[in-house]
Design brief:
- Helices cover about 30% and strands about 30% of the residues.
- By secondary structure, it is of the alpha+beta class.
- The protein has one domain (about 1-75): SH3 type barrels.
- A hairpin with a 4-residue loop joins strand 1 and strand 2.
- The longest helix is centred in the last third of the chain and has 18 residues, at about 55-75.
């Protein structure tokens, strides 16, 4: 089953990094290493075994972070 899930991981997929406890989008796959990116511009590499597909809630979390980051880049206050 793990192999089936790992085969669904592709560039653009939203995944959860178990090591850093963070949701990110896959930017590049280079063999077993996966380059991950957050909306803030943070990039890092993890081994394929350290990530899993994000849940629906985690995907929403990443979209909300992207929206907040875009607002801050434009100089708007965060909606509180």
């Amino acid at each position: 089953m793990r192999d089936a899930i790992q085969s669904k991981i592709s560039v653009g997929s939203i995944v959860y990094d178990r090591h850093y406890d963070m949701v990110a989008r896959i930017r590049e796959i280079n063999g077993p290493l996966i380059l991950l990116a957050r909306p803030s511009g943070l990039n890092w590499s993890r081994h394929r075994r350290s990530i899993r597909l994000a849940t629906e809630w985690e995907q929403k979390q990443l979209r909300a972070l992207a929206k907040l980051h875009a607002q801050r880049q434009r100089g708007l206050k965060s909606p509180t």
